Amino acid sequence: MNLSTVAVKKTAKTALKGNYSGSVVACTLYIFAFIVCEICYEMVYSVLGAVFSFAFLLLITMFLIIPLTLGLIYFTVRFIFGAEAEPILIFKYFSCRKDFKRALIFAFSVLGNALFYGFLLLIPSFTVDIIADGRIFKLFGAQIPLWTSGLSGISAFLKILAFISLIAVMMKFYLAPFLFVANEDMAPIQTLHISKVISSVTKKDFIWLMLSFSGYILACLFVIPNIFIFPYFSASYCVHCRFCLAYYNNAVDKINKEIPSFEVTL
């Protein structure tokens, strides 16, 4: 699939007309929540250490960050499809038990996959760390070889490689948040499956879209506050996903197989 980055951005800008101010408010609330969570994480890390802070990070990601992210996407999807959208909609998945439970199931599914693949990818660096620690040699009563002192650099490289590989693996789920909010009748686990199917064709286009925002990212770091650019990111993501969904539904119709097409139910 060759999805034009220019077409995605142009459509996103058109959708933002008349909705930009509300989108800035929604993104400000979202970014503020991120800042608060980061401060809390740093406090937990300084008091309780790495293990407890990591557990705390998982909890706030599952119970706060992911539901808020889904809420922001829900807000953006609504005005992209021409429906009424208010910034307060970013708290949609905290509004009732049913929505919150569904969001938690989705969060658990995504984090579960991330932890599983992350653990597998970190096995090589963990193995190097065990050898570099020297305890395995002491266990067998042997002297620690001098070459183990140089393993720390290899371990760090393997960790970086594992992190990059994890991002590449998790890219197959990049459509799942959009699918989750666009059809509230779809089971969270099903959104991950459909995302894998569609992203196998559209992933390269999404990577190009992200790369096209490099200049905006630099502007956020040095010139323009990110609350003014983040709405453009969010709208472009949702427009891209909408185009991908249209491509998927069209492909399903063409091949005439028993694969259910995806419908938006806002």
In a few lines, what is going on in this structure?
The chain is built from ten helices and no strands. By secondary structure, it is an all-alpha fold. α2 (20-48) runs antiparallel to α3 (50-80), α4 runs antiparallel to α6 (151-170) and α8 packs across α10 (226-255).
Overview of this protein structure:
The chain has 266 residues and is mainly alpha-helical. The chain has helices at residues 5-16, 20-48, 50-80, 97-133, 135-139, 151-170, 176-182, 188-211, 214-222, 226-255. The longest helix has 37 residues, at 97-133. It is globular and about 70 Å long. The mean pLDDT is 87.
The number of strands is: 0
Radius of gyration: 22 Å
Summarize the amount of helix as a percent range.
over 70%
Order of helices and strands: HHHHHHHHHH
| Shape estimate | globular
- Catalogue the unreliable spans: none
Q: Characterize the main sheet.
A: none
- Strand percent estimate: under 5%
What structural class do the secondary elements suggest? mainly alpha
The averaged pLDDT comes out at: 87
